[in-house]
Specification:
The chain is α+β, with helices and mostly antiparallel strands. It has three helices and three strands. Strand 1 and strand 2 form a beta hairpin.
Length: about 120
Amino acid sequence: MKRRAGKVRFWAVTIILVVVTAFCCTGTALCRADFGGEESERYYREREQILVKEAGEYLVRQGYENSGLMLTRVVNGDGSRVYTLSIHHSRIKALSGEERKRLTDGLEDFFFTDQECVFRINL
């Protein structure tokens, strides 16, 4: 009888430990998923605002005041992002290929480094 009670107690404790472990793992996974979504979105939003501000200031320093700047993004299902920085200014449209390349190279310095992001520039 004592032996049977010992087996029952062993299995009861084992089942409780398995349930507690599963609960803890699920809670950790859900917590990380929630943290990643809100925090990363806030991070990227802040980085995007800084990018547009710094790119605009760079264009003013280069003599292209009142340039129209538009940053668009596409967030893929895997979390990767594709950004397109479009710049509208009549004098930029008249630039030669080499001058456009020099301007593009200067703007690329403002892109934030992230493995998940790809950047494009439309002049």
